[in-house]
Design brief:
The complex is a heterodimer of chains A (about 425) and B (about 450). Chain A has eight helices and 29 strands. By secondary structure, chain A is an alpha/beta fold. Chain A has three domains: about 190 residues, FAD/NAD(P)-binding domain (3-Layer(bba) Sandwich); about 130 residues, 3-Layer(bba) Sandwich (FAD/NAD(P)-binding domain), CATH 3.50.50; about 60 residues. In chain A, strand 26 and strand 27 form a beta hairpin. Chain B has three domains: about 220 residues, FAD/NAD(P)-binding domain (3-Layer(bba) Sandwich), CATH 3.50.50; about 150 residues, D-Amino Acid Oxidase, Chain A, domain 2 (2-Layer Sandwich); about 70 residues, Arc Repressor Mutant, subunit A. In chain B, helix 1 runs parallel beside helix 5, helix 1 crosses helix 8 and helix 2 packs across helix 8. Chain B is globular and about 65 Å long. The chains are: A alpha/beta (about 425), B alpha+beta (about 450).
Chain lengths: ~425, ~450
């Protein structure tokens, strides 16, 4: 194994200092765990909200409404007040052993041996290359994350990456967030494209968004080519139903949403993964397949809102506490499977005697829009539950299913499938 | 800068071959200038290839390419070890998927021997699957090539250029050659930024080699830009394949390969398509579809992983099957034309050959005494410890422990070093070739803004 300068021995090591990791750390301290270490690779803790300069953060976890940066700051302050050891600029690069991590930081190469590890590494947007959009490779092609870093981060000027006329790929909440950020940087959004028949974001945002920001949303379309040698000059937008394409002049393209978990550490240690979400597979106690290693936040459900990630952190803290008191790691369980209408479900394992999931909700990612969402739960060809939920299912945002729908699951039975009728 | 530059030898083209020639010449008793149209060395064809250090087992026996690749392999292997160019001797296995391909394997082994390489071995399907368990079904057998290696093409070009400069060569970047006039004593090369006068010129202009050749009144070859598109898969795919997986070559070319990269990814490609536009390095939907369908056959599990990057390179294909290397003593002119993807491996041998040709034509090229020791290039490959893993380095300078690009684990210290290096990058792409910053799976989601800020501060 790699050489190191020193070994830290916290009770719990948390990888990732975003809403989930920080909330887990603070909660563990509140519950009486003496030594809690948060490893954050960025220069500052706080996670994605640090660069999302709009309001709406903290509703479910802090019972207040804050901007992203204020929310991130609050979570960091809370953790510091509770004497959580937050180490920034500290990147976990690999594992030395189960529950043992190798870290690179300006202080050197460290080894962290913990009794329990919580992975809270979040998610990122799929960039253009992973979406395999062909064409030239000019500058001016961004993700929302990079755009917000450029405009809101410590880098006041965008260095020319943000132009004056953008095409935004996607029409979910994060896409509108990108439109706002672009506008702030003096860049108009010429068009938003979505492969869906309906815009993915909440109607409450889409309607004022469309009228106030005056951005046309082009439905059932896909960006199929990027044009421009040095700088983006245009994109080719193709209608999915007719195959007809048009050229939309622009100097900036922002690929938004299409989230993918940052699950590298989980993969490096061979943890069981969920094929649908590409996240580590967890049970309702947020245990992964590896003894003593938990996971929480948008690493598991890419992506839900920051406050839901934070509440995952609160949930996992209680489970870690129970594990530290009586270390045992169940292996068998009943698999939850995303059925028709869903791309993934989290958590993915239920077991007799385990707690209900965080907020007593199952989280699923819809693949199509349904104004009336009829949810069906099946196990071994028997329908266990069928219910119309009072909220729509829409691709681009997490769909929540009350835990109660799984009341009739037979823990000794086969896979449980949750689908949209 | 518009004042005329006067040197003994001018090398046209700052790709891997031109830089190797400039380095070699700069170690002799002549003054040298390297003229490159782009703002950086290795910024055209040399930056986008399959990055393989070839044994030359499958070359045309008796060809110049065969001897140059064979000699170049030995020279570059030694040079890489000395100067710190990342190389991994992964070996290769050529996989037969059809009966005729299987039947062709002994002939290929024999051809390898005629190319001076006798370590190839024909193996059965079980042995092939034992070597690469992730191969798709249907492999019938294979040919093992133990010494095929992967190499960093970016560090190679940069190392040559850096050493050339240290030995006193003038690097004239951002100057496109617009005309060449051969005089009795000196040749005048007109560029977009002034004239260069040189007694001798070496044409290593790659995709523009035929055009420069015509400026000198010749008509010997025409470059057809042959586009090769490649997909680079996530590092998490690296466990699937530990050696180069080659197809059996056919009349249509060398075909699609799967290879680990020196940076720890897995590469699938290239396509092969003749273009007209010599600057069109765009990727295409057709290319992607072709590669993914090939990949699904060769290694289905690879397609379950994310694509980290896609790119397209242009090979300088010509109507000739071999390199076009000639000297014109009257014009004091050496042509290194039609150098295809094997040029990376052959580069040092071609530099040697160019010097031999000039010497034979009367130019005195004594090895110069007191050349400075070669530089040590920063390691950006995965085969050796990277700065983020090195306790000694971080202790000495904490900047090597401050990771900026998380996906590729590039430290602030490495970016700083690249920006202050003798041949600094002029854009983000140049910085990527020197450090790997921004080339990872997030493509700038996390660090793009910070890396650009560092680049702007220093340039």
């Amino acid at each position: 194994m790699s050489e190191q300068r020193a070994t830290l021995r916290p009770t719990v090591a948390i990888v990732g200092g975003g809403p989930a990791g920080l909330t887990a750390a603070t909660t563990l301290r509140r519950l009486g765990i003496e030594s809690v270490l948060v490893l954050e690779r960025e220069q500052q803790a706080g996670g994605i909200p640090r660069n999302s300069d709009h309001t709406g953060y903290g509703v479910r976890d802090l019972r207040t409404v804050l901007t992203g940066p204020a929310y991130a700051e609050r979570l960091v302050r809370q953790a510091r007040d509770w004497r959580v050891d937050i180490r920034t600029a500290s990147t976990v690069t690999d594992w030395a052993d189960d529950r043992s991590l190798m870290v690179t930081s300006p202080e050197g190469r460290l080894r962290v041996d913990a009794q329990a590890v919580v992975l809270a590494t979040g998610a990122r947007e799929r960039p253009r290359s992973a979406r395999m959009v062909p064409g030239d490779r000019p500058s001016g092609v961004l993700t929302t994350g990079q755009l917000q870093n450029l405009v809101h981060g410590r880098h006041e000027r965008s260095g020319g990456q943000v132009g004056v006329r953008a095409v935004v790929v996607g029409a979910e909440l994060v896409s509108w967030s990108a439109v706002l950020t672009l506008r702030e940087a003096g860049c108009a959004t010429a068009m938003m494209t979505t492969e869906h028949q309906r815009a993915e974001s909440y109607a409450a945002f889409t309607i004022p968004g469309r009228s106030l920001l005056r951005v046309p949303v082009s439905r059932r379309t896909r960006v199929t080519r990027i044009v421009g040698r040095e700088r983006v000059e245009a994109v080719e937008v193709t209608r999915l139903d007719t195959g007809q394409s048009m050229t939309v002049p622009c100097d900036t393209v922002v690929f938004t949403g299409d989230w993918i978990p940052d699950g590298e550490l989980a993969r490096l240690r061979g943890l069981d993964m969920d094929r649908g979400s590409r996240a580590p597979l967890v049970d309702t106690a947020l245990r992964t397949s590896l003894d003593g290693v938990f996971a929480a936040g948008n690493l598991l459900h890419p992506v839900d809102t920051a406050d839901v990630a934070a509440l995952d952190g609160r949930h996992v803290a209680a489970q870690v506490l129970a594990y530290l008191a009586a270390p045992s790691w169940p292996v068998e369980g009943t698999r939850l499977v995303a059925g028709e209408g869903f791309a993934w479900i989290a958590p993915g394992v239920v077991r007799l005697g385990d707690p209900p999931p965080a907020r007593s909700r199952l989280l699923l990612w819809p693949t199509a829009h349904r104004s009336v969402a009829r949810v069906v739960v099946r196990q071994d060809d028997a329908v266990l539950a069928r219910r119309v939920l009072p909220w729509a299912a829409s691709p681009g945002r997490v769909f929540r299913v009350p835990w109660g729908l799984l009341d009739k699951v037979d823990p000794s039975g086969g896979d449980v499938t949750v689908s949209l009728a | 800068m518009t004042t005329a530059v006067q040197v003994d030898v001018a090398v046209i083209g700052g790709g891997v071959v031109g830089c190797a020639v400039a380095r070699e010449l700069a170690g002799r008793e002549v003054s040298v200038a390297l003229i490159e149209s782009r703002g950086d060395v290795g910024d055209a064809t040399s930056k986008a290839n399959t990055a393989i250090l070839h044994t030359g087992f499958d070359a045309v026996p008796g060809s110049l390419e065969s001897s140059m690749v064979r000699r170049g392999y030995a020279l570059l292997s030694d040079y890489a070890a000395e100067i710190g160019i990342p190389v991994e001797r992964t070996g290769a296995v050529l996989v037969a998927w059809a009966a005729d391909e299987l039947a062709a394997l002994p002939g290929l082994a024999d051809k390898a021997v005629r190319n001076g390489y006798d370590s190839c071995e024909v193996v059965d399907a079980a042995a092939v699957y034992a070597m690469v368990p992730a191969l798709g079904p249907g492999a019938l057998g294979g040919l093992v090539v133990p010494d095929e290696s992967i190499i960093c093409p970016w560090t190679t070009t940069l190392a040559y250029a850096t050493e050339a400069q240290q030995r006193g060569a003038l690097l004239l970047l951002g100057r496109r050659v617009t005309g060449v006039a051969v005089g009795t004593e000196a040749t005048t090369i007109s560029t977009t930024a002034g004239e260069v006068r040189a007694a001798w010129i070496v044409n290593a202009a790659g995709l523009g080699g035929d055009m420069v050749d015509r400026m000198l009144g010749h008509d010997r070859f025409t470059v057809v830009p042959r586009r090769g598109e490649l997909l680079v898969f996530d590092k998490l795919a690296r466990a699937l394949v530990d050696r180069i997986v080659l197809p059996v070559p056919s009349a249509k070319g060398k075909g699609v390969l799967v290879s680990p990269t020196i940076f720890g990814n897995v590469m699938l490609g290239p396509t092969s398509e003749n273009l007209v536009d010599r600057s069109d390095t765009s990727t295409s939907a057709e290319g992607f579809a072709f590669l993914t369908s090939k990949g699904r056959t060769i290694m289905p599990a690879l397609l379950d992983e994310e694509v980290t990057a896609s790119y397209a390179g242009l090979r300088a294909a010509t109507e000739h099957s071999d390199y076009v290397v000639e000297v014109d003593p009257a014009q004091r002119y050496v042509l290194l034309g039609g150098i295809r993807s094997t040029g990376l491996t052959a580069s040092m041998a071609l530099a040697e050959r160019a010097c031999d040709l000039m010497e034979a034509a009367g130019l005195s090229l004594h090895v110069r005494a007191g050349v400075p020791p070669p530089p040590r290039m920063p390691n950006i490959g995965e085969a050796f410890p990277r700065p983020y893993q090195r306790v000694d380095l971080i202790e000495h300078d904490p900047e090597y422990g401050t990771i900026v690009c998380f996906c590729e684990r590039v430290s602030r210290g490495e970016i700083r070093d690249a920006l202050r290096s003798p041949i600094p990058p002029c854009d983000a792409d140049g910085l990527r070739r020197r450090t790997r910053a921004l080339m990872g799976r997030c493509q700038g989601f996390f660090c793009g803004a910070e890396v650009e800020a560092m680049l702007r501060e220093q340039t």
